[in-house]
Write a structure and sequence with these properties.
The complex is a heterodimer of chains A (169) and B (295). Chain A is an alpha+beta fold and 169 residues long. Chain A has five helices and seven strands. Chain A is elongated. In chain A, strand 5 and strand 6 form a beta hairpin. By secondary structure, chain B is mainly α. The chains are: A alpha+beta (169), B mainly alpha (295).
Chain lengths: 169, 295
Amino acid sequence: MNLTTLRKISFGLCLTLLLFLASCSAKAPSRFEQAQQDSTQNKVSAVAPKAEQGGQFNPFFPPSQFGYERVFVQEKQGFAEAKLKRDGKDVAMLSISDTISLPSAAQKYQGSATFIAGYPTLEIGSTQTGILVAERYQIKAISRDPSFGQAERQAWIQRFDLEGLAQLK
Amino acid sequence: MSKPIYELVDELPTGGITVMALRSLDFVMPGEWKNLTGFTHTIRVITGESDESLIQKIGERAVYLYNDKSQGYQRALWLYQTVDSAAGALGTAAMANRIGQDVSFLGFLSHLTPKPEKAQTIDLCVKLVVELVAFCQINGIPGDSIGDFLGALADYSGESLLRMAALVCFDGVLPLGADFILKGLSTLDKLTPAELEGNQTFKGVKSLIPGGNTKGQLAFIQQSFDSTQKWMSELVNAHQLTSEKVSSQLQNFVEISKDKLDYLGAFLDIAVKYYTHTGTQTLARRLIERATAEI
C-alpha cells in the first residue's frame, strides 16, 4: 500500500466519521412539529369564538357524594374540569368540553354502538369513557387510580345533568 | 415566536443547581415531587396511557392550546420566567449591597442598592401574587363560588406545592428568618406605592397584576399576603423551619463553602430558577389534562 492510497483511505474514514458525528448532533424533528407549524399560522385558534364559557358547564357536574369529593380545577372557554378525590387521593377527572372548537372530537362518536341515556358513548384508550350530548358537548370521566374503573366512569357520567346540558344553547 | 411547549418541557433539566435546590426541600414534603421532564414522557405519566396514536393526539391538542394566545398559557409562563429573572437582578443587587457592607471603599454601593431585607420582602410578596395570577391564567377561576376557588387553591400538589414550599423556604425563611411573615406584614403595611414601583420584580410583572394602578396593586398584594399567611405559618411551624435548617438541607445537595453562606440568598436568586422550572411543569400538566379531556 503506498502513501497516496493510505491518505485516500484515511481521508475517506475522516469524512465518514464527520458525517456520522453530524448526523448524531442534528436534532431529529419532533413528532409534534407539524402541529406546531399548523397552530402558529395566522388566524388559527384552538378555541372557537362561539364556544360556551366554561362556567356555563359547572351546574351540570355531579356534586360530591358517596364519599367522593368533587373539586373544580379548570374553567376555560369551552371547557370545565373537576377532580374526584377519595380519602384525599385523586381518583378521577370529570370534564365537559364544547366540541365546536374541535369537530373531530364529536365525529368519533358517529360509529358508536353503545349509548348512555340515549347519547353515544365510547371507551377511549384504557382510562377514559366519553359521551356526546346533543351532538356538541363531550363529557369525559378519566380514571386516575385503579380503584376507579370503567363501571365507576360510566356511573359518574350518568350522574351529570345530561338533560340540562342538552338544553344549553 | 416563542418556543414550542414540547421543546420547553423536553429541555427541562434533570440535574443541575435548580433541581438540586428543589430536591433539598424533600424534607418539607417527602416524596411529593417527581421531576417530570420530556413532553411525551409527561403525557404518558399523567394520563397513564401507552397507545402512541392517543399520545400523539393529546400532544397535538396541547400544542394548539398553548399556541392560542387567548388561552393565557403563554402569559402564565411569561410570568413565571419574569419573576425568576427579576429575582436574579435582585440577587445581584443584594450581593452588591453585601459587598458594600464588607468593603469600606465600596461603601457607596449600599446607597445604590436597596436594603436587602425590604427588597427581599417585596420580592416574596410579588412572587406570591404572581403565583395567584398565573394560576388564574392557566386554570381560569374554577367553580361558581369563592369556596370552589379556594378549594382549587387548597388542592395544590406535586410541583405546584413544591413551588410554594420553595417560596416559603428560599424567599421567606432563608433570607428573612422564621418570622418572615411578621416582617412581611409590617413591611407591606408601611410600603408606599412609589417604593413598590422601584422594585425590580414588581416592575417585571406589573402589567399583569390586578388593581388598576400601583396603589390598587399594592392593596391586592397586601390582601394576597394576608390570605396566605396562615398556610405559610403552618408550613413553618410543622417543620420548625429556620434559616439554619433550610441552609443545612440545601448544603446536602448544593456545594457551598462556609464563608460564602452570607451570600446564599443572593446566590439562590441568581442561580436557581425554580419558578420557571416548576411553572413549566405545572403548565404542561394542565395543558395535557385539558387536551386529554377535549380530544
